[in-house]
Structures are given as structure tokens and as C-alpha cells.
Design brief:
mainly alpha, 1 helix
Length: 64
């Protein structure tokens, strides 16, 4: 009984270690991709705001 329990525990630990490493890799990859996506969206948002401001200035000066 004791031997079986020890073997089972060892197997579980090994599996958990492998799983954790794989999960960490997957999470970090996802985090990198998410960071890149956020940076892309922020850059695009800033460009859109700049264009809107530039257009607003042109419109104001044209009307004024």
C-alpha cells in the first residue's frame, strides 16, 4: 500500500511539473502576443486621434 502510494505521488509530481512548464510557456506566449496587440491598437488609436485633430484644425481654419 505504501509503495503504491509513493509511486502514485511521484507520477503525479512529474506530470504536474511537465504540465506547469508547458502552461507557463503557453501563458507567456499569449502575454507577448496580447502585449503586441495592445501596442498595435494604442498606436492606431493615437494615429486616428492625430488625424482627427489635424482635420479639426483644417476645418476650423477653413471655416474661420
Amino acid at each position: 500500500m505504501s509503495e503504491h502510494n509513493n509511486n502514485n505521488n511521484h507520477h503525479h509530481h512529474h506530470h504536474h511539473k511537465k504540465d506547469g512548464s508547458s502552461l507557463f510557456k503557453q501563458k507567456s506566449l499569449a502575454a507577448i502576443q496580447r502585449k503586441k496587440l495592445i501596442e498595435k491598437v494604442l498606436k492606431l488609436t493615437l494615429i486616428i486621434i492625430a488625424i482627427i485633430m489635424a482635420l479639426a484644425v483644417v476645418v476650423v481654419y477653413t471655416i474661420g
